[in-house]
Amino acid sequence: MANKLNGFLDNFLSGLLNPGGSLKDFQHASRLFVNEAFRLAPKTKFLYFVNFNLTPDALQLFPILDQRHRAEINMLVKRVDLPGYKASVETKNQYNRKKNIQTRVDYDPISISMHDDNVGLTTALLEAYYKYYFRDGNLSNTTNSYNSRSTYNGGEGRSFRYGLDNGKINPFFRDIKLYQFSRQEFTEYVLVNPIVDSWNHDTMDSYEAAGISENRLAVMYESVLYSKGQVGEDVPASFATRHYDNTPSPLQTEGGGTQSIFGAGGLLDGATSTIRDITNGEADLGNLISLANTVRNAGDLSLDTLRQEGLTILGNVARNIDRQNVGGVPSIAFPKNSGTGGSLNVTEASASNTRDNVTLRADKIEQARQANGL
Question: Can you tell me the distance from the alpha carbon of 231 to that of 247, in angstroms, rounded to the nearest whole number?
Fold first, then answer.
């Protein structure tokens, strides 16, 4: 006759040697990417900003690129590469021992794509760069034709300079700064002494009805400087100064808030921020709007919402009780008294008691609200 404990001992032994079990849930990824307010979650690619800084000589010759339009050019960048590096490594023989040494570092060119806007701001940037360095682009009279000596013929014995003979000593770009945003903070990449390797306009095609025109730059640079900071208005420079949407998010109390107790835009969040600002003497119209939305959401809060939110929070707590167990099966724990011939699901029992307690507390809250006329 087979021993009834054989199956239990087999499961116990396999669970002891493999506590993770054969199947895994999402908890590892959740704890890595979600815990601690998404501290280790990957950054998104669409949160970025580019700032073109021109030298005073370039701005003096092309005033259209200064002030308002220069800030708008920064906003028209549709795609940009972050810096890349390549080190030259040589292998040396050190008494028959291989030794790798770095001899130099090369900086990979980056590509910048910009919208070809209707006003023509990004086209003006490429035009300005062309005219700044190369004499060819500064001729306005088409009658000054190329002669056989590859010089511009001005007539009556006059000639014009051509090619790179434009008398420019100072660079066009002072620097180009790339910004990567995440969690209201930025990482700054400063391209030192940037120079354009190639620049070109788009291809026109009558068959491509849905296409969007763009201008492209390939930029080389001599070094990269790193920095970090807190995002704000005009930090980085010219960011969030023009065409920026300042309307509060509907998830914030200023924009309406949510009908919940906890979390962003909830009752506790709105009440806490409003009281803190009033206490610090920083109350303004935004605080009054936030307070009004918080009071409105509190009045619309129903018993079912209270009960469901409480069940969700406390249920998550209950499911995390005693996760590390011998069998490797989530939410299952073996009792100390093995003579019962079975196992006890401790977590499910705890969750059941939790739901009963939350329901009782929610009923009491509803009774108190009705008694106070809420």
Answer: 17
